[in-house]
Design a protein that fits this description.
heterodimer, A: 441 residues, Purple Acid Phosphatase, chain A, domain 2, OB fold (Dihydrolipoamide Acetyltransferase, E2P), 2 domains, 6-stranded mixed sheet, 18 strands, 19% helix, B: 1169 residues, alpha+beta, Nucleotidyltransferase, domain 5, 7-stranded mixed sheet, 7-stranded antiparallel sheet, 36% helix, 17% strand, globular, disordered N terminus, 4 iron, 4 sulfur cluster binding (chain B), EC 2.7.7.7 (chain B), DNA-binding (chain B), exonuclease (chain B), DNA binding (chain B)
């Protein structure tokens, strides 16, 4: 079904600058040290920022103490890393437990429970937090300032708390014409879920082979497509529940991703001819597991990688389109926050990460990440204009304002195999459009 | 000095404000000691020779030792012998010390011994709650739960309790009131005694002559003469009486006869008295030698004797009626001098004297089954060892002591503190006390113990490490005020070595320390007695019971942490605190303390006996209690080695895989019920042939299957059946109460009670069979097992006769196996429910054919059931018709300790697949996969580690053993980290020269990881996996040959990977060239990943490689995060070296593997794609 008046639209171009360098490993990762240094570095960098906010919020009258300086019943401010002790948190140890009477741990949607304990930890010690702080809204790894007093039992009674807050934001560029960046995630190719028909529809729309002239005109304004992870379906595991071989075998896993990658190559072939496609790896994709995930290897995409339109990027991915700052992930960070607290809405979780000034606080605790030693690339240095997360349950967006005039568009990009929706962000005014595809058949 | 002195105020009672207490006490310690001696010298009136001053002998390093523990048994000259099953022999290795020095020499007045420091009161949190009001002995009854009973020899008895001249024993009961105040009760007037059967023709008027003669003989012995001091009228024998008693061993018609009861002045005269009496002596000078035959009850410990006669049970409640006791107060009325020696000698809050017959002992039932708020101190020390050497008290300082004090019944400790040498950063939730010198630290700790005044001292391996270490260290540093950590103020604690050996635990060298009035409850010792574990390190134990790993800091790192700064020392302190806390948590979780207390109550022995003595003492105590009620006396048996009697045999199993429900019928408490049913006892034993002389008819006695004879109940009811009946009735009651009880602590107590009762009932049989025990009687034990066999056979015959097709049952029932007290029957019913019905019916019918109370009960159904051989089987265990309760495995490698974990996991998974999922093919496939993975080197090293204990020195090992060999090798590499005697040695068999025996190829897992040493996978296949695997698959696949050909000969055994060692051999000369990742072809361009040929498949090859990276990253992250979590800190590096932890080797391997894999993946960076 081609449009009645065959009109030729030329695709808009945009200035693009990839600013994801801090997520790239340029050399072989020669060492895999422990995680302590990462927390140490994070606290070192974040302490100053949190202190500033604390002083602003509570003034200079209340002393800031380290845990070793605490005196009982003296009101003070302490700064450290939050740590949540969760009973339901999966443990490698329990998994390996020889005692097979204990059933293998069920995979829970959420680890956070009602009997968790919240602690604040400094370089050398930790203290239990009680009182006015909602454990349901905070996760392990966040740097926080706490105002309160230590009680008889060696707990810290919280009166108030504060985070580092949203960092400054570069000025928003003036853009006069419509220009869109499109988002898709969770194609889940090669799996059982066949969303191929809707995906075809989507591709045809994007490439202008389908739709009314109005639609085609709009699509011609799409300058770039970001594919935010999980392009292929998760590799099937042996479904036999009692199968415990993975418990102790360091076996060579045979790649179950080959079909999926072939299909992806085909899909990309169609797209890269028309626009810039930014391919981010996700949890299911054949790349490394720890964040930051490195760009997928071109050898797996022998057809499409010949085109200059294909940009293999990292996850998290940060870039500027016409001066508009984008930052986002394939969703692991947000999914993990969901598990670690009682925040249900992805957009709320995303907003939280901005106030925490850290996009992946639960790494390395429950979210695997590389054991960095002198940097923490997940600390927000500047607030982006668009902040997205792929593979979420719904297509959502919200504009949030920061305390110093920051305006951020939060974008939760749905899992396409479940919610077949394409999201367009207009660089001119940050307006969002959701285009949902229905299987014609 | 001014504040203290030998007998300043009373310990623990004076809660007055003593601000400067701390400084003054440590400052004048040596002075205090000297002062103590001075006091002794000036008090010549004490009536004792100066040579016997215990303080001197202590300071000379010849420790006088006595507690209730040694008192009785040694004094009797009777060795505690090894007992047939599961018992403990105590062989004292001490040199022959003068007997006097061996006995307790605490003088009631406290003026002639070394002066212990006074208990200080420095913290309201540390001290016991003060007495709410003074106890008024004229109006108040004093009630307390006693936790320990011992005795001492009172050189100068209090005048009011004085009945004889000379030093006599006084029994001490230490306890706690319901309000939590500590009590010491001196019970006066109880004397040791024994019996002799009066020789025929012995008349009452000969008693005096007998007494004189025996007394004279005893006084001839130097040690006894010395023990009595220089009193005017010295008498070793205090009293002789004729009483009516009966020998409990063997039935006789005569009934009670004349027995001479001989009361002695001191317990340790017993051995000499026994010897003299048994060899016979003449009553008059030059008179004929009278032969008295065997003595009775000379081998009863003094404390047990006291407890039986005073009707005191272990840990029960004691009540002292008003006016019947006197309170000891520090009376300084006579010019600061203690009045008539009646001052307090202990650190208890209340100290009283009473006549032993006046105390009321409440049996632990009903209201009196409660427990007092006992104080439990758990502590752990850290020492700074020298590099490579395990800390030794002469050289290495104590740098930290962590303490946790908890009240029994509470869930959290109320005192948490750590004493550190040098500065240490604060720890939230715990008090940190820093000291600049080790002397201060130790002294302060000693004061802390005195002030906290714990009833129970616990910890992990404190008996053999922590306590001896601090005591010896303090001795080395000449801290004279230190060793007063017991409750007797002037009593020093010192260390003594013993060897304990038993069939159950092997041989162990133990150290003992006297801490009067406090019970040392070493968790390690309890676990060694009660649980069979792969490893007994605190880590392994806490993982096993709490599913929680503990950070393990290797002792070589400890010195580094100590020498760092306040932060590293804080780190160490946190670790130390955790080690002090864990024992408390484990005691709570395992309920050991409550269970032990209940055992003490049920069996009537002091709590400490349960930890230091074997099973026998418990039965002896019960037997004597019952015997005393019926005027039976127990002979002191000579130990004889007799014939082994045949043990419990089982019905020959009919091995196979049963895919039908198998009913299991069990005899409830089989052995106890046999003894009850047939009235088997010492008192009913009828000597062969004597039935004729005694005119007993055929119906008056029974003949057991072994041909032994016992009289029936109506002639005489036996003691043992009576005891058993009591125990089993009490158990029923405890179970009923348990069901009703709601209070969690009381619930625990009741559960501990019913368990203790069950164990006690079962140990009676073992006691009669213990050939080197106190009273073996093989007629009883042999008959019991013979009856047991008979019961099983009768049941089998009954079932197979009555449950047949003819009688309307699905098939002819077949008994496929019978164990000690159970029979497994195939009834042929298709469903579990139906089988249960028939099973119940059968149990009921068969039970009617047995004598009460022997009862066969239907217990469970196995379906399916895999019977391998005698005592080896597995099955799904059903007690309800619908869902199985568990998978039950007996005697199969899933639980054996001497295999590598791979075997246990493999067998367990296979059994799960076979039995739970009924997936035969799956199980075979799985087994094959594991074998293939093993041969391809893909199994994690932690799965291949075999652990064995280095239990003997090299010379003692006869054969060559892998772990001994490895210990040797490691000693050569680094003497410091090499395993020591008693350590468990982990090892892996590595590939090497095949000519070498396997034991020579054992290697340390860490060394293997560090040096990439290839593992001998073939060894694991042949020597570890194959046998158990074939055993379980044999019945399933038809035959073992078939199982072998399928599992061990298939294609999956063909692929092998041989890893190349980085050490030794030609490794140094081999130069590796870059090869294609896929096909190993040598590459032209060294940097590339693939050869030209394989490049076509680059995508799929890369995906395989990257999938491995993906998996390894996942693993690495998971494990290191776990370790971070375990150590309880995010910001500090994990320094744990706990090799009992599954993760330990895996995380190290993951780290290595990941680095390797990253390199491989990165080779794809080169080239054009």
């Amino acid at each position: 079904m081609v449009s009645e008046t065959a009109q030729a639209f030329s695709r808009v171009h945009s200035d693009f600058q990839n600013t994801s360098d801090r997520f790239v490993f340029t050399a072989v990762r020669n060492s895999f040290p422990q995680y302590a240094q990462l927390y140490f570095t994070r606290l070192e960098i974040m302490r100053g920022r949190v202190r500033e906010q604390a002083l602003q919020k509570w003034g200079r009258d209340i002393p800031i103490r380290t845990l070793s300086e605490l005196t009982k019943d003296e009101p003070c401010i302490i700064i450290g890393t939050a740590y949540k002790e969760m009973e339901l948190k999966p443990s490698v140890l329990k998994d390996l437990s020889e005692n097979l009477d204990i059933a293998t741990q069920p995979i829970l949607p959420r680890y956070a429970g009602d009997h968790d304990t919240l602690l604040l930890e400094e370089e050398t010690q930790r203290i239990v937090l009680v009182g006015n702080i909602d454990m349901r809204e905070i996760v392990t790894g966040v740097t926080v300032a706490i105002m309160g007093t230590e009680n008889e039992d060696g707990e810290f009674v919280v009166k108030d708390h504060c985070f580092a807050g949203m960092p400054p934001q570069p000025e928003y560029p003036t853009i006069n014409t419509d220009c869109y960046v499109a988002f898709l995630s969770g194609l889940n190719l090669g799996g059982d879920v066949s969303s191929l028909a809707t995906l075809d529809l989507c591709i045809e729309s994007l490439t202008g082979q389908f739709g009314t002239a109005v639609q085609q005109r709009k699509m011609s304004k799409v300058t770039a497509l970001v594919l935010a992870g999980n392009h292929i379906a998760p590799v099937k595991r042996d479904t036999d529940v009692s199968d415990q071989k993975t418990r102790y075998l360091t076996r060579h896993s045979s790649a179950g991703s080959i079909d999926g990658m072939q299909a992806l190559d085909g899909v990309l072939m169609q797209l890269v001819a028309c626009m810039n496609v930014f391919l981010m790896p996700g949890a299911n994709d054949p790349g490394n597991y720890m964040l930051p995930q490195q760009s997928l290897h071109p050898c797996m995409l022998p057809l499409s990688n010949k085109s200059t339109g294909l940009r293999l990027v990292t996850n998290p991915f940060e870039a500027e389109f016409n001066g508009v700052k984008f930052l986002g992930t394939s969703g692991q960070n947000i999914g993990d926050i969901y598990k670690n607290c009682h925040i249900d809405e992805p957009l709320t979780a995303m907003e939280k990460t901005l106030t925490w000034t850290h996009i992946a606080p639960t790494a390395p605790d429950t979210l695997a990440c590389y054991p960095f030693t002198d940097v923490d690339p997940f600390i927000l240095e500047a607030t982006p204009h668009v902040y997205f997360a792929g593979n979420q349950g719904a297509a959502g967006y919200r504009l949030v304002k920061g305390p110093t005039g920051q305006t951020v568009l939060l974008l939760s990009v749905p899992d396409f195999s479940k919610v077949p929706t394409l999201m367009l962000v207009n660089l001119k005014n940050l307006e969002v459009e959701r285009i949902t595809f229905k299987d014609a058949i | 000095m001014s504040q203290r002195g030998g007998f300043a105020g009373r310990g623990g009672y004076n809660r007055g404000n003593r601000g400067g207490g701390r400084g003054s006490s440590s400052g004048n310690t040596p002075g205090a000691f000297r002062g103590g001696r001075g006091a002794f010298n000036s008090s010549g009136s004490s009536g004792r020779g100066s040579g016997h001053n215990s303080s001197q002998s202590q300071s000379n390093g010849t420790p006088p030792y006595a507690t209730q523990y040694s008192g009785g048994s040694r004094a009797n000259g009777q060795e505690e012998e090894e007992i047939e099953d599961a018992d403990i022999m105590i062989m004292d290795e001490m040199e022959d010390l003068p007997e006097l020095a061996l006995d307790d020499e605490i003088n009631g007045s406290g003026d002639a011994t070394a002066t212990g420091p006074e208990t200080l009161s420095t913290s309201s949190k540390w001290s016991r709650p003060p007495l709410t009001r003074d106890v008024n002995p004229n109006e108040d009854n004093l009630t307390f739960q006693q936790i320990d009973v011992d005795h001492y020899i009172d050189a100068v008895p209090l005048s009011c309790f004085k009945t004889f001249d000379g030093p006599t024993p006084v029994t001490r009961l230490f306890g706690v009131t319901a309000e939590g105040c500590s009590v010491l009760c001196h019970a006066h007037g109880f004397r040791p005694y024994f019996y002799i059967q009066a020789p025929t023709g012995f008349r009452a008027d000969q008693l005096q002559a007998f007494m004189r003669a025996l007394n004279a003989r005893l006084l001839n012995e130097q040690t006894i003469a010395r023990g009595l001091g220089n009193g005017a009228s010295r008498s070793a024998v205090l009293e002789v009486n004729i009483v009516q008693k009966e020998n409990m061993y063997g039935y006789s018609e005569q009934g009670k006869r004349d027995f001479i009861q001989v009361k002695l002045a001191q317990p340790r005269f017993m051995a000499s008295a026994k010897r003299i009496v048994e060899s016979g002596f003449s009553l008059l000078q030059n008179g004929p030698v009278v032969n008295f035959g065997r003595t009775f009850e000379t081998n009863v410990d003094f404390e047990i004797r006291f407890m039986i006669d005073a009707k005191v049970f272990g840990c029960n409640w004691i009540e002292l009626p008003a006016k019947k006791y006197r309170i000891r107060t520090s009376s300084r009325d006579v010019a600061g001098f203690l009045h008539s020696g009646a001052g307090p000698v202990s650190r208890c809050q209340i100290e009283v004297d009473c006549e032993w017959s006046q105390l009321i002992s409440h049996p632990p039932d009903g209201e009196w089954s409660k427990v007092a708020p006992l104080r439990i101190l758990s502590f752990d020390i850290e020492c700074a060892g020298r590099k490579g050497i395990f800390p030794e008290a002469q050289y290495d300082p104590v740098i930290q002591i962590a303490n946790m004090v908890q009240t029994l019944g509470e869930t959290q400790p109320f005192i948490r503190n750590v004493f550190t040498l040098d500065t240490c950063d604060p720890i939230v939730g715990s008090e940190v006390l820093c000291f600049t010198t080790e002397e201060e630290l130790l002294n302060r700790w000693s004061q802390f113990v005195q002030e906290v005044d714990p009833d129970i001292i616990t910890g992990y391996n404190i008996q053999n490490f922590d306590i001896p270490y601090v005591v010896e260290r303090a001795d080395h540093l000449k801290l004279f005020a230190f060793p007063f950590i017991g409750r007797i103020r002037n009593r020093k604690s010192y260390i003594r070595n013993t060897n304990i050996s038993s069939k159950q635990m092997g041989r162990r060298e133990n150290k003992l320390c006297n801490i009067e009035g406090r019970v040392v409850f070493d968790l390690l010792q309890i676990l060694l007695r009660e649980y069979k574990l792969r490893s007994y390190t605190l880590n392994a134990v806490s993982y096993h019971f709490l599913q929680e790993q503990k950070e393990d800091v290797h002792h070589s790192i400890i010195s580094q942490l100590q020498n760092g700064n306040e932060q590293t020392r804080r780190r160490l302190a946190v670790y130390c605190l955790k080690d002090a806390l864990l024992p408390l948590r484990l005691i709570d979780k395992l309920m050991c303390l409550v269970n032990y207390m209940e055992m003490a109550r049920v069996t009537g022995v002091p709590l400490t006996y349960l930890m230091s003595r074997g099973q026998q003492i418990k039965v002896v105590s019960q037997l004597l209690r019952r015997a005393a009620e019926e005027d039976y006396v127990m002979p002191s048996m000579q130990v004889e080695v007799g014939d082994e009697f045949t043990g419990a045999t089982v019905l020959e199993p009919n091995p196979g895989y049963y895919d039908t429900p198998i009913a299991t019928l069990d005899f409830a408490s089989l052995y106890p019920s046999i003894m009850q049913a047939h009235n088997l006892c010492y008192t009913t034993l009828l000597r062969k042939g004597s039935e004729k002389t005694m005119n007993l008819g055929e119906h008056d006695f029974i003949k057991t299957p072994t041909g032994d004879q016992f009289v029936k109940k109506r002639i005489r009811k036996g003691l043992l059946p009576d005891i058993l009946e009591g125990l089993l009735t009490a158990r029923k009651k405890a179970k009923q109460d348990l069901a009703k009880e709601t209070d969690p602590l009381r619930k625990k107590v009741l559960d501990g009670r019913q368990l203790a009762l069950k164990i006690s009932a079962n140990s009676v049989y073992g006691f009669t069979g213990a050939q080197v025990g106190k009273l073996p009687c093989l007629e009883i034990s042999g008959s019991v097992t013979a009856f047991g066999r008979l019961m099983i056979e009768k049941s089998k015959a009954y079932v197979e006769e009555n449950f047949t097709v003819d009688k309307g049952y699905p098939t002819d029932a077949v008994v496929i196996y019978g164990d000690t007290d159970s029979v497994m029957i195939k009834f042929g019913a298709a469903t579990v429910a139906e089988t249960m019905k028939i099973g119940r019916e059968a149990a009921k019918q068969i039970s009617t054919t047995f004598e009460s109370p022997i009862k066969l009960e239907f217990e469970k159904v196995y379906f399916p059931y895999l019977l391998i051989s005698k005592k080896r089987y597995a099955g799904l265990y059903f007690t309800k018709p619908d869902v199985h309760d568990k998978m039950d495995c007996k005697g199969i490698e899933t639980v054996r300790r001497d295999n590598c974990p791979l075997v246990a996991n493999l067998i367990d998974t296979c059994l799960q697949k076979l039995l739970i999922h009924r997936n035969k093919e799956g199980a075979i496939k799985y087994a094959k996969e594991v074998i293939s993975d093993l041969l391809c080197n893909r199994v994690d090293i932690s799965q291949l580690i075999i652990t064995k204990e280095l239990s003997k020195t090299d010379k003692e090992y006869k054969g060559n053993q892998a772990h001994v060999e490895l210990a040797h090798k490691m000693r050569k590499r680094d003497a410091g980290s090499a395993p020591n005697l008693g350590d468990r040695v982990p090892y892996v068999i590595v590939a090497g020269d095949k000519k070498d025996a396997a034991y020579k190829r054992s290697e340390d897992p860490i060394y293997i990881l560090d040096n990439n040493i290839p593992i001998d996978t073939q060894y694991y296949l042949e020597n570890q996996i194959s046998k158990p695997l074939i055993r379980i698959f044999g019945p399933i696949l038809g035959s073992e040959e078939k199982a072998e050909s399928i599992l061990l000969r298939g294609d999956h055994t063909r692929t092998k990977t041989i890893a190349i060692s980085r050490t030794g051999g030609l490794a140094a000369f081999v130069k590796t060239r870059a090869s294609c990742i896929q096909c190993k072809a040598v590459l032209n361009n060294e940097k590339e990943a693939l050869c030209e040929h394989c490049k076509k498949n680059a995508s799929s090859i890369y995906q395989g490689v990257v999938a491995d990276l993906h998996g390894l990253e996942d693993k690495f992250a998971g494990m290191w995060v776990q370790c971070q979590q375990c150590q309880g800190s995010l910001h500090q590096d994990v320094i744990c070296t706990n090799n009992d932890c599954t993760i330990y080797y895996m995380r190290k391997k993951a780290q290595k593997d990941l680095t390797e894999q990253e390199k491989i993946v990165r080779r794809f960076d080169y080239g054009d794609w």
